[in-house]
Amino acid sequence: MHFYWWIVFLLNFLFAAGIMLTYVSRGRREENNSQSGRTVRSNANVLVILPAKGVDYQLDKNLISLRDQEFDSFDLVAVVDSEEDLSVPFLKEGEINYVISTATCEKCSGKVRAIYSVLLNYPDYDRYVVADSDIRAQKSWLADLLNPLSDPKIGVSTTFPIFYPEGGFWSKIKMYWGLVGQSMMESSMTKFVWGGSMAFRKELLDAESLRLFSASISDDIAILRIAKKKGLEISYVPEARPKIYSKEDFHEFVEWSNRQTAFSISSTNRTFYFGMVYYVVSIYLLLSSIVLAVFVNVIFVVFLFPYFFNSFNSQRKVPVKVWYFLLFTFVLPFIYVWNLISGMTRKKVVWRGNSYNLYDKQS
């Protein structure tokens, strides 16, 4: 009799978990405030800041995509640590203006120092855009990203990339892993600022905010906190999503995914708690369904529906289709939990050859 009630309880829990996972996995899309189709004021002075260090994969093509934007008038300036940086020959070949990062800031990362240096030396622009050197932008990327800033309630406009795998298994895992970032962007509860493509008005960084920015490890987390402090909204612009081509192996993927998660958690602990609840329930549903199907009745495979739903939904979204996509859906919850635990417990990250302490993990 006790076994019977245990089965009833388990079935009810599995049913509720399945509905929750299916609902959340649909990616509840809030009303998009990117204002697609509106034209940016032609008299706005725009500066695109490109922090560069080392040679990203297919850097030459990435630089050309940023240089050749279909936008009336804008300036593009790259920032390097020194003339000896390996990216300099590519910048010269692409005819992209670059400067040496000269600003001094306490506890900041190399990227923050680079952006801070440009903000200090180029103060006369109305709009600033930050782009990572690993992105491949479509022709309308800049216009799409700037459009929301015509609304004074918007503090920052941002987007999230599409990962294109050009390597083996782990670069394809990264492609699917990136769908989580897209889902987070589509919800007001989890939306964040992605530093690979973000735009903001000059007024966002007043003297006090600029000081706070210069003391940060992560540029996008700093911009997010400043915007929230000023009561301004974050606009997600899916039309501006750039591509990132990658060839990660296992070690590169682990280092990248753990670092990304650690930075997200350092922005707000809600990322950890929300993620742990969601993915632990996912794993519980997966393992319980398999055990019940094997030892009780095969009918219990019905509780795997959320996984099959996620698999086909993810397969529809990714740019490169793989025949073993079902495997990714079963493996990824375990990887995400690993990332979350690693991100919550680690005190430092290694980024572009430098080690940084994660001082503040409080929301």
Average of pLDDT? 83
Tell me the span between the first and last alpha carbons. 47 Å
Which of globular, elongated, flat, extended, rod-shaped describes the shape? globular
At CATH level 2, the architecture of the largest domain is Alpha-Beta Complex
Q: Roughly what percent helix?
A: 40-55%
- Give Rg in angstroms: 22 Å
How is the largest sheet built, in terms of strand order? 3-2-1-4-7-5-8
Q: How many strands in all?
A: 11
- Topology pattern, helix = H, strand = E: HEHEHEHEHEEHEHHEEHHHHEE
What percentage of the residues does DSSP assign to strands (E)? 5-15%
Report on the structure:
It contains 12 helices and 11 strands. The protein is α/β, with parallel strands linked by helices and 363 residues long. It folds into 2 domains: 9-28 and 268-357, no CATH class; 46-251, Spore Coat Polysaccharide Biosynthesis Protein SpsA, Chain A, CATH 3.90.550. The protein is globular and about 70 Å long.
Task: Present the secondary structure layout.
Blueprint: H1 2-25, E1 46-51, H2 59-67, E2 75-80, H3 88-93, E3 98-100, H4 110-121, E4 127-131, H5 141-146, E5 154-158, E6 162-165, H6 169-185, E7 197-201, H7 207-214, H8 219-229, E8 233-236, E9 243-246, H9 250-267, H10 270-295, H11 305-317, H12 325-345, E10 348-351, E11 354-357
Helix pairs in contact: 1-10, 1-11, 9-12, 10-12, 11-12
